[in-house]
Write a structure and sequence with these properties.
Radius of gyration: 24 Å
Bound molecules: aspartic acid, magnesium ion
Strand order of the largest sheet: 3-4-2-1-7-9-10-8
Order of helices and strands: EHEHHHHHEHEEEHEEHHEEEHEEHEHEE
Helix content: 25-40%
Structural class: alpha/beta
Number of helices: 13
Number of strands: 16
Length: 415
């Protein structure tokens, strides 16, 4: 059994959906379990629906939702003939569920409504794709993943209950091809939940784990994992092989290759992950597996919009265990993850993502024992497996405010 994950960009048009069918056809000898994201930018559009609904702009919310409805219906009409009536019927169930909700007044918190609304994107995309595959004789079974993936009710970042999920998954059956939604799950009260933005990779990894799959393939619009973001750098190179560990490190430092939660369920069962291009499926792509890979090129990760918080001990007393433990308690309470931290005799420097509310709360609370200074609009550059040459090249025209080096990783906060 192989697991495939198709992201939003791979299914954002009639042509692209036809293209993934071509890919699936190339694997006609295999049993496949296929996880699909919402089409294109649907999730962003649904976020707008949720925001307007919660702000009391019901009309706006319904209008935005109407646009999405029409887009999906048009795609279905362009893809389907025999299956069209059935498909539209299925879609209309999901439309009605949302419209019914949008006519109500919000009485629960935003995150709850967010999940009820945003989760529909994957239900719509998989419905259309499943019908299309059936129409062209790639027979498959569609599953509502909310009947399988059980989560807690921590809406927008729900935690998976693996035991119940496994029990439920063991009860389903399909012949050669199963297809279901990424990114979503449900509570024990049948409320929809989401696993965090870009969470479909993680969903696919959950199924690969439960199926003891021989491999999982994430189909993307790039040739594989690159040593830097091609949108930021010209001369990037494809990395043909990576270890699970390296990918976890890359995700930790902010590389947006794969959702950070994806690796663990695969590593536990040593299931190799392939990152391949849906535009050039014949290319080998990148293989991520349980193997130490030597001689990697420098891997560059850029994080923009960073803040440097400079904390200076008020009474010139040393920054010892007490103030540090006070600081880490603040991080935990405010849910802040410092990207870089350096302590001196009477000061601490912290590099953090610029999340305004959190920064403000941290600054106010830290000011009980520190003088606080902030510096905004900085860039954090991380180079894994750095070389002197790669550091020189990247730092050439930068001013470094803070720098750290281990044997494997170079980091610099610059403007
Ligand atoms: N559709 C969701 C998102 O855009 C999940 C995913 O794409 O993985 O965040
Ligand atoms: Mg996506």
């Amino acid at each position: 059994m192989k697991v495939f994950k198709f992201g939003g960009a791979s299914v954002n048009s009639v042509e692209r959906i036809k293209n993934i069918a071509t890919i699936i056809n190339k694997y006609s000898g295999e049993n496949l379990f296929i996880i699909v994201s919402a089409m294109g930018k649907t999730t962003n559009a649904l976020e707008k629906v949720a925001e307007n609904f919660f702000a009391g702009n019901h009309q706006k919310a319904l209008e935005f939702f109407d646009d999405l409805k029409n887009e999906h219906i048009t795609i279905a009409e362009n893809l389907l003939q025999v299956q069209l009536v059935f498909c539209k019927e299925q879609l209309s169930h999901f439309f009605t569920e949302i419209e019914w909700l949008l006519h109500d007044k919000p009485v629960r918190n935003f995150d709850y409504y967010y999940d009820q609304i945003v989760s529909v994107g994957e239900l719509l995309s998989t419905t259309i794709i499943s019908c299309y595959l059936n129409e062209i004789n790639i027979s498959n079974t569609w599953f509502d993943v909310r009947d399988i993936i059980r989560t807690d009710n921590n809406f927008r970042d729900a935690i998976v209950d693996w035991q119940i999920t496994e029990e439920k998954f063991n009860k389903i059956s399909f012949k050669k091809i199963g297809i279901t939604q990424g990114f979503i799950g449900a509570t024990d009260e049948n409320e929809s939940t989401t696993l965090g933005r870009e969470g479909s990779d993680f969903s696919a990894a959950i199924f690969a784990n439960l199926l003891n799959a021989e491999s999982i393939t994430i189909w993307k619009d790039v040739d594989g994992v690159m040593n830097a973001d091609p949108k930021q750098f010209k001369d990037v190179e494809l990395i043909s092989e990576l270890s699970f560990e390296e990918v976890i490190e890359m995700a930790y430092y902010g590389a947006q290759v794969i959702h950070p939660k994806t690796i663990k369920p695969l590593q536990n069962k040593k299931i190799p992950l392939l990152v391949k291009s849906f535009l050039n499926p014949e290319l080998a792509g990148t293989k991520i597996h349980d193997k130490i890979i030597k001689q990697l090129p420098p891997i560059i990760i850029i994080k923009e919009n960073q803040i440097l918080m400079h904390l200076h001990s008020k009474d010139f007393s040393f920054v010892g265990e007490k103030p540090m433990s006070f600081l880490y308690t603040l991080f935990e309470e405010i849910k802040i993850k410092p990207n870089l931290i350096q302590t001196g005799a009477i000061s601490v420097q912290i590099c953090i993502d610029n999340k305004e509310n959190k920064i403000e709360e941290l600054a106010i609370r830290a000011s009980s024992i520190f003088d606080v200074e902030l510096r905004k609009n900085l860039t954090l550059t991380t180079i894994r497996n750095y070389s002197a040459e790669s550091i020189n090249k990247l730092m050439r025209d930068k001013t470094i405010l803070l720098e750290q080096k281990t044997t494997t990783t170079f980091q610099a906060l610059c403007f």
